[in-house]
Amino acid sequence: MSTSKSAQQPVSRAMFDDVMVPNYNPAKMIPVRGEGSRVWDQADTEYVDFAGGIAVNCLGHCHPAMVSALTEQGNKLWHLSNVFTNEPAIRLAKKLTDATFAERVYFANSGAEANEAALKLARRWALDNHGEQKQQIIAFTKGFHGRTFFTVTVGGQPAYSEGFGPKPGGIEHVAYNDLEALEKLMSEKTCAVMMEPLQGEGGIISPDQEFVKGVRELCDKHHALLIFDEVQTGFGRTGSLYAYEQLGVTPDILTTAKALGGGFPIGAMLTTATIASHLKPGTHGSTYGGNPLACAVAEAVFDVVNTEEVLTGVKQRESLFKKLLNDINDRHNVFKDIRGQGLLLGAELNDTWAGKARDFLNAGADEGVMVLIAGPNVIRFAPSLIIPEQDVIEGLARFERAVAKLAG
């Protein structure tokens, strides 16, 4: 009786507060459908989507290739577990290894799980090859690597990891782009250095070229693994399939998720055959990882994204975004810096507006454009990689109206 009654209740934002754990505070409107780079809410209000599901919806909403792959695989086989393999997982792994430095792939369900696997592999590799004393993991302040207890501790934002009791040990942090600090901390006890090739949650911070090359050299010197967290930067986001390709540095382990499934949950860890050999049967696993439904969708996304047309288009859209954001700033003087790469861009607020990034996010929603933040001072843009230029122009016109209301 009560089940039937609740099923008939209209879904509202107020119902969210009644039934959901309060660790999120989502927008007041509820999106109900999307097409391309446009989204409509329950009141049929239209929004231009510059948030992209936090850099996930790389082909926008309901892309025909994704819908087709999901429908076709949904009528064949959904799930098997890791007791069996499946054709979509093998095909996707083959495409990923053919397109990257990697020779082996481990599938998971999210970026956090891919990072968890990478960190466990690094520790196991170090133990097998060098002994128990080689267990130090170094990461960078303001980094973000997921919300499991291991990954959130490796992430360099204490606000996310404190308040849950004793943390995993052997983890230390230095400032991003500070090669000297890293050099002082590293030793033969270091088993891995984990970094984003462009910090996302930390404020859209690009690495210095000398820094990235120096990190690689220090890892080689101390026989440590270099782990690139490309959960947010990967799969075309910066204008190449993975960001490492533009940095002249190859990691030992790479993690990928978000855009990998274009909106269907999937993550992966990529590495070499030699390093991968340390995860022997039974040492790590995932019930859903490598699910045929997820892998079929991700394969369809790969086939669209890994093309010259799409990757070149990302760079073209980056130029348009930066030009129009700078034009907005010329008229309203609210930004200190416009930065980022490809379609992972950040507009840092100037001192007058410091700490008010969420005000711009909310004002944008009121004007019909969805944006993100990256900390209290940076407005983040991570739209579809194939967003039509007209949608970029229209979305930023709406965003300018929001800026004008706040600044005016």
From TrEMBL:
It is an enzyme of class 2 (transferase). It catalyses: N(2)-acetyl-L-ornithine + 2-oxoglutarate = N-acetyl-L-glutamate 5-semialdehyde + L-glutamate. The keyword Amino-acid biosynthesis applies. It comes from Pseudidiomarina salinarum. Its cofactor is pyridoxal 5'-phosphate. Binds 1 pyridoxal phosphate per subunit. GO terms for molecular function: identical protein binding; N2-acetyl-L-ornithine:2-oxoglutarate 5-aminotransferase activity; pyridoxal phosphate binding. GO terms for biological process: L-arginine biosynthetic process. It is found in: Cytoplasm. Pyridoxal 5'-phosphate binds at G111, A112, F144, D229, E230, V231, Q232, T287. GO terms for cellular component: cytoplasm. May also have succinyldiaminopimelate aminotransferase activity, thus carrying out the corresponding step in lysine biosynthesis. It comes from the Bacteria. Pathway: Amino-acid biosynthesis; L-arginine biosynthesis; N(2)-acetyl-L-ornithine from L-glutamate: step 4/4. This is Acetylornithine aminotransferase. Pfam families: Aminotran_3 (PF00202). Homodimer. NCBIfam families: arg_catab_astC, argD, PRK01278.1, PRK05093.1, PRK12381.1. Its EC number is 2.6.1.11. Keywords: Amino-acid biosynthesis, Aminotransferase, Arginine biosynthesis, Cytoplasm, Pyridoxal phosphate, Transferase. Belongs to the class-III pyridoxal-phosphate-dependent aminotransferase family. ArgD subfamily. N(2)-acetyl-L-ornithine binds at R147, S286. The modification N6-(pyridoxal phosphate)lysine is found at K258.
